[in-house]
Fold:
Amino acid sequence: MKSPGIRENLNVGLFFSILVVLFFLEITTHLFEKAAGYYLKWENHTRPQLGRIWERDRENIAAQKKIESLLSSLNLQEQSAESIQSLKELFEKLSPSRPQVVSRRKFVQLYYDFPGQWAKNLIPAYDLIEIDADKNWQRVLLTQFGPWITVSFIDNQNFPIREVFLSADQLVEIQSTRTVQRGQLEDLGFRTETIFSLAEFLKIFKTLDPAAQKALFPDPQWFLRHNYHITRVGLLENPDPMNGGGSPLFGIEYETEFFTDVLLTPIPREITNNLLSQFERPGMEGAVDPETFMQGF
Structure:
């Protein structure tokens, strides 16, 4: 008869012992607050978060989602930029509301794929080597704010390694050094007497000093890599007669797979005079005589 009473006393004692232990844990470790916090944080996402801790967590989650959205947008822009064929096209697509992103591989390809020196004026090749030395250069981000353009070289953590700042006017000035136009030399205003075959031109070209050669002709690998075949070259002494003549132009006519294009390069007048004076061709007397040549300017 005594055993049920003893058992009840043991149960009551055990119950109070558990309460004492829980009370002690609550005092020392704030067990119940932490348990409630973890429950609200991980088990009930639909419950509005209140208080300083929950507001901070919500801000962290929102910031993380924003970062993920920006990274996803950068990746999509980088993929869409793979079809761009030149640095000039890349900058033409740029606007204040439309930044451009290209991978490191694509930027290097475009940097060395334009038949001119203006890419080197954008950033020297030795600076690219320095940026690439730490093996963490990942992509290039181009942004425009009003008349200013920022070229940011981004690492694999999406932090800028180096930034180059350009004005829109400066970019136009850089890009104007060489242009490509569709058609033959005659279509662009070159006179027959100042158009020469490639073999005829190279005989004179090889006698020029290295500085003059560099000003006239791009690296031949640009033509060879694209399977472009040079047919003729020409000199346009007076490209803009309505506005005082402008700088003389040196034109390289070449055939692509489907079209004939002309690569145009502004050159100093002294180089033009030097070249024309070395060609011997009927009808060239006026071009060779400096007094006659300068009458058009």
Notes: Strands lie at 100-103, 137-145, 148-155, 160-167, 179-182, 195-197, 229-236, 249-255, 260-266. The first strand starts at residue 100 and ends at 103. The mean pLDDT is 75. The first helix runs from residue 2 to 29.
